[in-house]
Design brief:
mainly alpha, 8 helices, elongated
């Protein structure tokens, strides 16, 4: 996987850039597949989990105005990049692994090599770049939608004011929270792309092998997301202790 990632990055930064048209197509396909599920999932999750559950907790102490501060930690820092990465892996990652795996089974990858074309440059590079660039952008959408869901729960269910929610949100929102969330999503996108590309490029066993490869790619992606999230968040909190304080 490390070798595949290194070769793909090399293809992206060295001529000839024959992957550009395929990158545009793959980026647009990824947007069509992932944008609506990412937005809807984060609104619903923000309303139901941190919105309702977190709202119940702060309501017990009579501090509903702190819900906005809670959402900086819950949605922007954690839930938004996590839900976003899970959806990208489950939607775009599986499609990537299945597409490359089907091409491998049909011997299209061998045919490209016979024609003098590098399958990594022509197929893997544009797909990896699309996921690496779009996953952080989807994370921004996730964070916004998650905060919207929490705001709806705060205003509609707990009858608090929008100004109170936004006031504590802005007072606790920091640049390390936002940049850390985007950087984390960048790593998630890279891991998802490498895992799915590797499994797709190394399929064996016909159509059943394609199915196994897709399942394995998703499991690897989820494990990679969990481990990376833990390590990154621990490093972020240690480097910027002020992000742990709620005002």
């Amino acid at each position: 996987m490390v070798v595949l990632a290194a070769r793909t990055i090399t293809c992206l930064v060295t001529p000839a850039f024959t992957w550009r048209d395929e990158f545009v197509d793959q980026a647009w396909i990824t947007v069509k597949r992932c944008l609506v599920p990412v937005a809807v999932s984060n609104v619903v999750f923000g309303f139901g989990a941190p919105g309702m559950t977190g709202g119940q907790i702060v309501n017990i102490f009579g501090t509903m105005d702190r819900t906005g501060a809670f959402f900086v930690m819950a949605s922007v820092r954690e839930f938004a990049p996590w839900i976003n990465a899970m959806l990208v892996a489950g939607v775009a990652g599986t499609a990537m692994a299945a597409d490359l795996g089907a091409r491998k089974v049909r011997e299209e990858l061998d045919a490209l090599q016979v024609l003098g074309l590098d399958p990594i440059r022509e197929l893997v590079a544009p797909r990896l770049l699309a996921l690496v660039l779009l996953t952080p952008l989807f994370c921004l959408v996730s964070a916004i939608c998650g905060v919207i869901g929490g705001g709806i729960a705060t205003v509609v269910v707990f009858q608090d004011t929008t100004s109170g929610f936004l006031s504590t949100f802005y007072s606790n929102f920091t640049l390390p929270d936002l940049l850390g969330s985007v950087a984390k999503s960048f790593l998630f996108g890279l891991l998802i792309a490498v895992f799915c590309a590797y499994k797709g490029m190394n399929v064996s066993g016909g159509p059943q092998g394609v199915g196994r490869a897709v399942n394995q790619a998703v499991v690897l992606s989820f494990v990679g997301i969990f481990v990376t999230n833990y390590l990154f968040t621990s490093t972020l909190l240690a480097s910027f202790p002020e992000t742990s304080n709620l005002h």
